[in-house]
Amino acid sequence: MTNVEVRQSSIHNKGLFALLPLRKGERIIEYTGEKISKKEGDRRSDEQEASGKPMVIFELDDKWDLDASVGGSGAEYANHSCNPNVESVDAEGKIFLIALRDIKAGEELTYDYNFDAEAEHTPCHCGSPQCRGKINRPE
Ligand SMILES: [Zn+2]
What pTM was computed for the model? Predict the structure, then answer.
Protein backbone atom coordinates (compact mmCIF):
# COMPACT_ATOMS: atom_id res chain seq x y z
CA MET A 1 0.00 0.00 0.00
CA THR A 2 1.71 3.16 -1.14
CA ASN A 3 -1.27 5.24 -2.19
CA VAL A 4 -3.51 4.51 0.82
CA GLU A 5 -3.27 3.99 4.57
CA VAL A 6 -5.46 2.53 7.29
CA ARG A 7 -6.46 4.77 10.17
CA GLN A 8 -9.30 5.60 12.51
CA SER A 9 -12.53 6.47 10.69
CA SER A 10 -15.44 8.63 11.77
CA ILE A 11 -17.80 6.22 9.96
CA HIS A 12 -16.87 2.94 11.60
CA ASN A 13 -13.76 1.66 13.38
CA LYS A 14 -10.80 1.84 11.03
CA GLY A 15 -11.04 3.03 7.46
CA LEU A 16 -8.96 3.32 4.32
CA PHE A 17 -7.67 6.78 3.37
CA ALA A 18 -5.99 8.23 0.29
CA LEU A 19 -2.39 9.29 0.93
CA LEU A 20 -2.07 10.88 -2.50
CA PRO A 21 -4.54 12.51 -4.88
CA LEU A 22 -6.21 9.75 -6.95
CA ARG A 23 -7.62 10.17 -10.44
CA LYS A 24 -11.08 9.09 -11.53
CA GLY A 25 -10.85 5.56 -12.94
CA GLU A 26 -7.57 4.82 -11.17
CA ARG A 27 -7.06 1.28 -9.86
CA ILE A 28 -6.25 1.91 -6.20
CA ILE A 29 -5.76 -1.43 -4.50
CA GLU A 30 -6.59 -5.08 -5.00
CA TYR A 31 -8.98 -6.68 -2.52
CA THR A 32 -7.18 -9.88 -1.58
CA GLY A 33 -7.93 -12.74 0.76
CA GLU A 34 -8.30 -16.47 1.01
CA LYS A 35 -10.66 -17.81 -1.67
CA ILE A 36 -13.28 -19.93 0.06
CA SER A 37 -16.63 -21.50 -0.80
CA LYS A 38 -19.88 -19.63 -0.11
CA LYS A 39 -20.71 -22.14 2.60
CA GLU A 40 -17.39 -21.56 4.35
CA GLY A 41 -17.80 -17.81 3.82
CA ASP A 42 -21.20 -17.85 5.54
CA ARG A 43 -19.75 -19.87 8.41
CA ARG A 44 -16.82 -17.49 8.86
CA SER A 45 -19.05 -14.36 8.64
CA ASP A 46 -21.17 -15.72 11.46
CA GLU A 47 -18.03 -16.50 13.43
CA GLN A 48 -16.52 -13.04 12.83
CA GLU A 49 -19.80 -11.37 13.77
CA ALA A 50 -20.21 -13.45 16.94
CA SER A 51 -16.65 -12.75 18.08
CA GLY A 52 -16.92 -9.00 17.40
CA LYS A 53 -14.07 -9.14 14.86
CA PRO A 54 -14.28 -6.98 11.73
CA MET A 55 -16.34 -8.73 9.07
CA VAL A 56 -14.11 -9.04 6.06
CA ILE A 57 -15.82 -11.61 3.85
CA PHE A 58 -16.15 -10.25 0.31
CA GLU A 59 -18.75 -11.87 -1.95
CA LEU A 60 -16.79 -12.71 -5.08
CA ASP A 61 -19.61 -14.39 -7.03
CA ASP A 62 -22.32 -17.01 -6.64
CA LYS A 63 -19.84 -19.69 -5.67
CA TRP A 64 -16.89 -18.02 -4.00
CA ASP A 65 -16.06 -15.55 -1.24
CA LEU A 66 -12.79 -13.91 -0.22
CA ASP A 67 -11.81 -13.87 3.44
CA ALA A 68 -9.51 -10.88 3.91
CA SER A 69 -8.66 -11.90 7.47
CA VAL A 70 -6.22 -14.28 5.69
CA GLY A 71 -3.85 -12.39 3.41
CA GLY A 72 -5.87 -9.18 3.18
CA SER A 73 -4.22 -6.26 1.36
CA GLY A 74 -5.79 -3.58 3.57
CA ALA A 75 -8.63 -2.97 1.10
CA GLU A 76 -10.92 -4.74 3.59
CA TYR A 77 -10.72 -1.63 5.79
CA ALA A 78 -12.64 0.45 3.25
CA ASN A 79 -15.98 1.33 4.84
CA HIS A 80 -19.38 1.34 3.21
CA SER A 81 -20.98 4.59 2.13
CA CYS A 82 -24.28 5.28 0.37
CA ASN A 83 -22.42 8.04 -1.51
CA PRO A 84 -19.13 6.29 -2.23
CA ASN A 85 -15.99 7.59 -3.96
CA VAL A 86 -14.71 4.19 -5.09
CA GLU A 87 -16.29 1.03 -6.49
CA SER A 88 -15.27 -2.61 -6.39
CA VAL A 89 -14.70 -4.02 -9.86
CA ASP A 90 -14.15 -7.64 -10.84
CA ALA A 91 -11.35 -7.87 -13.41
CA GLU A 92 -10.99 -11.50 -14.47
CA GLY A 93 -11.60 -12.81 -10.98
CA LYS A 94 -9.52 -10.19 -9.22
CA ILE A 95 -11.28 -7.46 -7.25
CA PHE A 96 -9.97 -3.93 -7.42
CA LEU A 97 -11.13 -0.72 -5.80
CA ILE A 98 -11.40 1.92 -8.53
CA ALA A 99 -11.85 5.67 -8.01
CA LEU A 100 -15.32 6.85 -9.06
CA ARG A 101 -14.17 10.47 -9.14
CA ASP A 102 -11.03 12.48 -8.45
CA ILE A 103 -10.13 12.01 -4.79
CA LYS A 104 -8.05 14.36 -2.67
CA ALA A 105 -5.23 13.20 -0.40
CA GLY A 106 -6.65 12.51 3.05
CA GLU A 107 -10.17 11.56 1.93
CA GLU A 108 -11.63 8.37 3.29
CA LEU A 109 -12.23 5.75 0.58
CA THR A 110 -15.65 4.15 0.67
CA TYR A 111 -17.63 1.90 -1.62
CA ASP A 112 -21.21 0.68 -1.67
CA TYR A 113 -21.26 -2.80 -0.10
CA ASN A 114 -24.64 -3.41 -1.73
CA PHE A 115 -25.68 -6.11 0.72
CA ASP A 116 -28.54 -8.27 -0.46
CA ALA A 117 -31.88 -6.47 -0.08
CA GLU A 118 -33.37 -9.66 1.35
CA ALA A 119 -30.64 -10.22 3.94
CA GLU A 120 -30.98 -8.97 7.50
CA HIS A 121 -30.70 -5.17 7.40
CA THR A 122 -27.41 -3.70 8.57
CA PRO A 123 -27.77 -0.11 9.78
CA CYS A 124 -25.62 2.49 7.99
CA HIS A 125 -23.91 5.45 9.67
CA CYS A 126 -22.11 6.87 6.63
CA GLY A 127 -23.52 10.33 7.30
CA SER A 128 -23.99 11.26 3.64
CA PRO A 129 -27.14 13.24 2.73
CA GLN A 130 -28.08 10.31 0.44
CA CYS A 131 -27.81 7.76 3.26
CA ARG A 132 -30.48 5.07 2.87
CA GLY A 133 -30.14 4.09 6.54
CA LYS A 134 -28.96 0.57 5.79
CA ILE A 135 -26.06 -1.04 3.98
CA ASN A 136 -28.44 -3.29 2.05
CA ARG A 137 -29.49 -2.47 -1.50
CA PRO A 138 -32.88 -0.75 -1.70
CA GLU A 139 -35.71 -3.22 -2.33
ZN1 LIG B 1 -25.42 5.36 4.48
Answer: 0.91
